[in-house]
User: What shape does this take?
Amino acid sequence: MRDPTDTRALAAGYATSHRLYEYGGVTLGSVCGLWLAWRMANGPGLALGSAVMAIVLGMLLADITSGTVHWMFDTWGTVRTPVVGALAIRTFREHHVDEKAMLQHDFVETNGHNAALSVILSGIGLYASSTFTQVYLITGAIFIAMTSQIHKWAHMDRPPILVRVLQKLRVILSPVHHHAHHVAPHTRNYCITTGWLDTPLRVLRVWEALEWTISRATGAKPRL
Ligand SMILES: [Zn+2]
Ligand SMILES: [Zn+2]
Assistant: This one.
């Protein structure tokens, strides 16, 4: 059986097919995002207050998505789980073993997965008729697409200056906030886009409640 703490074995699971999937994600994510932006630029405008609200809601949507996906892959299954084991769980488990390894990932490996996921929101946005919904969905799509990059910046010793300003203002995930997740057993602060929702989720014990419910319903055990 493969040692789950062996980072070389985890990294060796990065197959050519996965690389092609990531290239496809970046391409499709960019095309859908730009297509939606073009539709918005040619559509009716939006009052400033409404635009700010739509942007904040879009950022919250990205943050809860990042937290939910991260919690799912950290908590359930193993690297041998069919499809998602190699596609996603590998990346999350490798990150707990060596949190700086992601700094070696290039643009495509960092962002391909999330760019592919963002297509769901920008794709729905292409069918939305209200500008508010379009702004909400394109913000969600942009921040979902950028989540791994934002997470990577939180692990850099010296990220770009503008990034450091946004981290300090807590507009995007701050390194101090995210560090709490890297303390074993890695069950705090799953949200890695802005981190805004981690405190309410912790206070309400949302992840614990979900784990208890899923274990009771399926018999599955978390963090095997
Ligand atoms: Zn984690
Ligand atoms: Zn991390």
Observations:
- Residues 189 and 199 are 8 Å apart (CA to CA).
- The chain has one domain: 14-218.
